[in-house]
Amino acid sequence: MTNRQRPALIASLVTWPLVLLIAFPLLWMLLTSVKPQAELFTTPPDFLPNAITFEHYRRVLEETAFLQYFRNSLVVAVSTTVLVVVVAVLGAYSLVRFAYRGRELLASLVLFTYLLPSVVLISPLYLMLVKLGLANTLASLVAAYTSFALPYALWLLRSFMAGIPEDLEAAAMVDGASRMGAFVDVVLPQALPGIISTALFSFILAWNEYLYALVLVNSDEARPLTTGVMTMLISAFNIEWSLLMAASVMMSVPLIVIFAFFQKYLTSGFGAGGVKG
Amino acid sequence: MAEAALPGARLERRDALLGLALIAPTVLVLGAVIVYPLLSAIYLSLFSLYTPTLEGHWVGLANYRAVFGSSGFWSALATTAVWTVGTLTLQVLFGLAMALLLHQNILFRSLARSLVLFPYFLSTVVAVLVWRWLFNDLYGVVNHALMAAGIIDAPVSWLGTMPNAMLSIIVVGAWKFFPFVVIAILARLQTIPEALYEAARIDGAGPVSRFFDITLPQLRDVLTIVILLRTVWDFKEFDLIYLMTGGGPVNGTRTLPLIVYQQAFGLNQMGLAAAHAVAMMLVMLVFMLAYLRRAGGRVA
Amino acid sequence: MVQVVFDKVRKAFGDTVTIPGLDLVIESGEFVSLLGPSGCGKSTTLRMLAGLEQPSGGRISIGGRDVANLPPAERDIAMVFQSYALYPHMTVAENIRYPLRKRGVPKPEQATRLAEVAALLQLEPLLDRKPRQLSGGQQQRVALGRALVRDPSVFLLDEPLSNLDAALRAHMRAELIELHRRLGKTMVYVTHDQLEAMTMSTRIAVMKDGVLQQFAPPAEIYDRPANRFVAGFIGTPSMALAEATLLRDGGGARLQIGAMMIDLPGRHAAAAPCAVTVGIRPEDIVVGQGPWQALVRLVEPTGHETIVALEAGDLALTARIPGGPRLHAGETVAFDVNRARLHLFAADDGHRLALDITDTTPPRSA
């Protein structure tokens, strides 16, 4: 159908320059990270590097605490994800399928916390974690990250699970399963895409978090990537942009992997989470 | 009890107990990391509290008098409003336009979508580092490009002067968060039945009137929700502004979340910070309630 | 003996009472349909029997065993759902084996029973497929297979045919009748389709607003509806119902319907005079001869018979006449009614009047 193809071509010509403009900062990050230091300061700047070097990557890995930060971020993000997904899967199932007093109130509370500013919670959380002797530990970050990841996860899973036909559980129970048996045999497999989506979102939220890390952790032993890399910026006398860009690229690798292989779970989670309500 | 004699009551109670057991971990965790901190934030706001020693005394509503009596709070509120309105407008307009374009049958559509969506999932720290490098006074690409295009004669300080700093964070905020609008609208566009457009075409509607008579009304609900949600989220944004400008130059981009942080951990006035936070929440409450009504209406 | 007993079963959701008190005894080996318009409580009744919903009062027993506190798994029932409720992540074979697996049936026996059921329902070529790769009719068979594989004491079927197209539905109706005959199991079947209920059931329980209206074999439901609701609900096209007055006339009785007067046997005089509702089935109207005149409003030929809408004064009637259309809309025809087959209901609460005319005549042989 020529009628359909012609507008698509015009739309492509309009869209692609905009797309490239949006992607440019990231492309520039990548290019800067492989340019020799000297090439950064030419005027006007060259778009493509004259020589490609991985020196900056080597220096980030060998001369900074990057790997320590990376390990911390990984531990915190994975722990937060596991904790949040386990709690939220059970909680969301309860919210969707059981009747008890206070259920509606709880659902509203979850939605409310989903909008709550971190800065409101940060002082009391800080005080609480200091009192518990958890200041400067990875555990304190997991606890703090749960405060935003759990409402998000509950909300997401609630909407995924609401979409599973109740008849399936009824059938399983008639077929001989207990209530929890039906949950394991039928609901969990059906909710799997939602669970994956929730896990990815929790991981990304935890991986990218900055404010709590800034307040709760001030030693390299427990510092995650976000505050760690910023420390590299602030502590340096003159800012080495190529170094920072190399660190930024490496810090984004898990996100790029997630994005490349699981994008459909991210977009489906999106609709379910905030927007559809 | 009469109820105990009812047949099936045991089953029903067993089910209700199971429901409560399943929700218990959620209630415990939410209580510990949200409800308790939230209530103690309100409690703290009635104290004068020195952060490093955590020593303090009851001051009642004095903190609130200080908050509402200071020009700092009101100018920060104004700054927050400028930032929120500015970046939200760009996000919505650009997001809507991009969603409509990406809904077309363009070349390499899925690649284009991925590239557009990625900034949203990127860490704010990375986004800020990249943009600070782009905005660099001497070697930044932005200045070079604008000079080459003849728009400016000399390098401009993007983050060190006003109103440039505000403009810069608004643009970076729009770049980082507009994909949210794109995804939401794109998802909705895909569910508009093709039959509506066919009917309109039969009724003689051209492309423009099809957009205004069908597409836009169909998007109204999702746009409302997206705008409410992004208003709340932009209003409370901390990372991006703090990392881009630190609230500067002077206090030019100091929004409410930044004041709360500075009071608590810069000026070590935790009680006053809590009062600022509570006051800020009161302002946000309008939008939060509007969103809750919109989205929460569909909870049950 | 697997008798199913509902004893004063009540169901309320909050303040809304959907079933005020149901008494129903289903004998062993019966095929009983719960029939009624949507919202009449038939599905709730079935789900209470299955243990998926709890009664607010009363007692349910299966085979003499009070099941009130038994979860569905322990009630020895199998159920086919309107949505089929096939487990989407399992293959057809896994779906059918699931009830056996849950009951710890040994693997070799699982395989044997699966093979039997697959052969019975011709599912062999589909065993490795996922439900979404099947047509509606195939999914329906799998759902049936999953119920059959376990040999339960009672089968519950919740509108299992309503998602099929007309031809398939007729075919599955015949298969279910055959299946019931072969297995001899108690079956409880929920439907809003009277054709299904009439063709398949040994007895039909007609329900309305949570109240049992009549519980009887199909022929009796049709020939001797217990009240005005059942009379109007059963039969297509439906029975014409009209307000009338029963009058005494010397030693006999007369029925006055608008301008029409119908003489009735004298024993009806006992109740007269009183207001009644009279019911006339379409096949009990004779068109072309008789003492009254009617205007033909609409003629609907269905092939082997013709449905004719008539208007006699204020009275709207529907007649069913054999063969093709011989009438035209707008013409006036003479008609008569089969006096022996009139139905009389009390004008106030609509119950069937004991002095009923058809009480003395045997049910039609046709």
Could you walk me through the main structural features you see in this protein, from its secondary elements to its overall organization?
The complex is a heterotrimer of chains A (277), B (300) and C (366). By secondary structure, chain A is an all-alpha fold. Chain A is 78% helix and 0% strand. Chain A has helices spanning 2-34, 55-63, 66-97, 103-113, 118-131, 138-162, 166-174, 179-208, 211-216, 225-235, 241-275. The radius of gyration of chain A is 23 Å and the shape is globular. Chain B is mainly α. Chain B has 2 domains: 2-44; 71-296, Orthogonal Bundle (MetI-like fold). In chain B, a hairpin with a 4-residue loop joins strand 1 (47-50) and strand 2. The radius of gyration of chain B is 25 Å and the shape is globular. Chain C has 2 domains: 4-226, P-loop containing nucleotide triphosphate hydrolases (Rossmann fold, 3-Layer(aba) Sandwich); 232-360, Nucleic acid-binding proteins (OB fold (Dihydrolipoamide Acetyltransferase, E2P), Beta Barrel), CATH 2.40.50. Chain C is elongated, with a radius of gyration of 24 Å. In chain C, helix 2 (92-102) crosses helix 3 and helix 2 packs parallel to helix 4 (136-148). In chain C, a hairpin with a 2-residue loop joins strand 1 (4-13) and strand 2 (16-26). The chains are: A mainly alpha (277), B mainly alpha (300), C alpha+beta (366). Chains in contact: A-B, A-C, B-C.
List the helices and strands and how they pair.
The complex is a heterotrimer of chains A (277), B (300) and C (366).
Chain A: H1 2-34, H2 55-63, H3 66-97, H4 103-113, H5 118-131, H6 138-162, H7 166-174, H8 179-208, H9 211-216, H10 225-235, H11 241-275
Helix pairs in contact in A: 1-11, 2-11, 3-6, 3-8, 3-10, 4-6, 6-8, 6-11, 7-8, 8-11, 10-11
Chain B: H1 2-5, H2 9-44, E1 47-50, E2 55-58, H3 62-69, H4 71-103, H5 109-121, H6 124-134, H7 141-148, H8 164-189, H9 194-202, H10 207-235, H11 239-244, H12 256-266, H13 270-296
Antiparallel strand pairs in B: 1-2
Helix pairs in contact in B: 2-13, 3-13, 4-8, 4-10, 5-8, 8-10, 10-13, 12-13
Chain C: E1 4-13, E2 16-26, E3 31-35, H1 42-50, E4 57-62, E5 65-66, E6 77-80, H2 92-102, H3 107-120, H4 136-148, E7 154-158, H5 166-183, E8 186-191, H6 194-200, E9 203-208, E10 211-216, H7 218-223, H8 228-233, E11 240-249, E12 252-257, E13 260-264, E14 274-280, E15 285-301, E16 305-312, E17 315-322, E18 332-337, E19 343-346
Parallel strand pairs in C: 3-8, 3-9, 6-7, 7-8
Antiparallel strand pairs in C: 1-2, 1-4, 4-5, 9-10, 11-12, 11-14, 12-13, 14-19, 15-16, 15-18, 16-17
Helix pairs in contact in C: 2-3, 2-4
